[in-house]
Each structure stands twice: as structure tokens, then as C-alpha cells.
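Entry 14. Structure prediction run on the chain below.
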Amino acid sequence: MNPEPISLLMALTAGFLGSGHCLGMCGGIATLPAAAASNTGLRVVLFNLGRLVSYGLLGALVGLLGASIGELFDVRQWSMILRIATGVVVILVGIYLLTGFQALLFGEKAGARFWAKIAPLAKRFSGQKNLGQTWMLGMLWGYLPCGLVYSMLLAASVSGSPVTGAGVMVAFGVGTLPAMAGLGFAGSGLLLKLRQGQARRIAGVVLILGGLWTAGQPIYHQYQMQSGEMQGHHHHMNH
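Output returned:
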């Protein structure tokens, strides 16, 4: 299954318009490359590339796990189930951005326990004595327990394949780049707009509509198939 454009577009939208949420949690970390004594621009790039790589790896892993479950238990119509699940998760992410209701809070709590184990390692690299440490700090930053990140990770887990899962998470990460890289370069006017609630509300509405379309399409397709089979059966009986 190749990455579906609608899934990538929704992930990109969530990252770009939902970046205001990231500023409070990740803002301090995002400014660390700018605080380095040299190579600020290169450090910002390496820092964010490391974050995107970690997002992609996580997305591929959970996408593989989600796809493997269907094969392991030989679930019929697993592809349709995953498509509907993707739509539901995206709707919940949209509700989260629109209202602040954290229906997917359990993902963030699980991430917080994982982060507690690797936080000491991230602290070791925070001094950025060389460019390699800047890259590693960005890689570890990708595991920071953020509700929006882990919600998108859940969407990646039901995406149907490791390629799609990685694509969803990388698209989300690319969407956050203007805000996060902007902070790394000491901020921009865009960040002020992203902090405002209007951008989050727009993102919420877009994701809810996209999630409804994603979940509704396979249901409608299945309904059409069943209707066609019933009509064919009645036609055969009449003969």
C-alpha cells in the first residue's frame, strides 16, 4: 500500500496549523541550536533533520506493527478496518486541536514513561559540543511526549504499512518545520500567528472533515458492493 495523498496532506496540515501547540512544550529545546557558539544555521538544520528521521522511524515501526496484526490473525477486510480506524484517529486529533479535549491522552502518558528513560541521554547532548551531538539531540527530541505527536503516531499505526506510517510522520514533521526551525533561528512573525487559537481551530475543522471522508469512503464502498450483490441475487431469483 503506497502512502495515500489524503493521509499525508492531513498529517502535513496537523503539523503546520497545530504547531502552536508544540511551541509551549518544545520551544525551549528548539532554541538550543541558536544558543550554540558556532554554525547556528547548520545546527538548526541538523537538529530538525534528526527529529524528522526519528519521526519516520517511529512511523515505520508502528505502521509495520499495525499491518502485521491483520496478517497474524488473518482478519478479513483488514485494509478497510485500517482505513476506518485512520479516519477515526484523525477526527479525534481534529477534536483535540479544535476543543482541547484529549481523547488520545493515553498515548502521551505512555510516551512520558518512555521519555523518562531517555531524558538523561538527551541532557548529555544538550551542550552540543559538536555537530554530531546536535544531530543526536534532534533524534532524541523526536521521542518527546507531545500529545499531538503521539496522536499522529497512532494514525500512523493504522495506516496499513511501514511506508505509509513513515510517510505520515515525516509529513507531520515537515509541517512543524516553519515553527520549530523559526524558533531555532530566533523566531519569526509566523510563530505569533501559530500561537493564536484560530490556526488550531482551522486545523481541527480540516482534520475532522478529512477524517470523515477517510472513514466514510470505505464504508460507502462496502455498502455499494453489498447493494450490488443483493440486486444480483434478486435478479437471479426472479429468473
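The longest helix spans residues 197-238.
Filed with the rest of this week's runs.
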